Amino acid sequence: MVTPPDAYLDLLREKKAFASIATVMANGTPQVTPVWFDYADGIFRVNTAKGRVKAKTLTPGAPVAMAIVDPENPYRYLQVRGRVKSVTEEGADAHIDALTKKYLGVDTYPYRQPGEERLSVTIEPSSASGVG
What we know:
A 7-stranded antiparallel sheet has the order 2-1-5-6-7-4-3. The longest helix is centred in the C-terminal third of the chain and has 13 residues, at 92-104. The protein is built from 3 helices and 7 strands. It has one domain (6-105, 115-125): Pnp Oxidase, Chain A, CATH 2.30.110.10. By secondary structure, the protein is α+β, with helices and mostly antiparallel strands.
């Protein structure tokens, strides 16, 4: 398992940095979306809702690239490449609420739509390097 350089762990653990996550759509074209994420034990997790483009591209084994930009210095970022390890509905609602706490400081995800089904996606990095 690849771990990010120590000099960039603040972007993963302390700061409210967004990740721009790139995936490949069924027709082979790239797709990029800014996302909330968390990181623990060498694994990144993101969350999405069923039916969104991310949910269609973030399937087990799918390649992923992320750029995590320092919110205080846009010239400093961590680049991560890897593959989707798993996708699950189990615990996904609690996961989006935990991300909401990190990014918005409130306990419950305020943008939930009626009937929305959440997915928690784990990403295992195969490379990680920093710039700046």
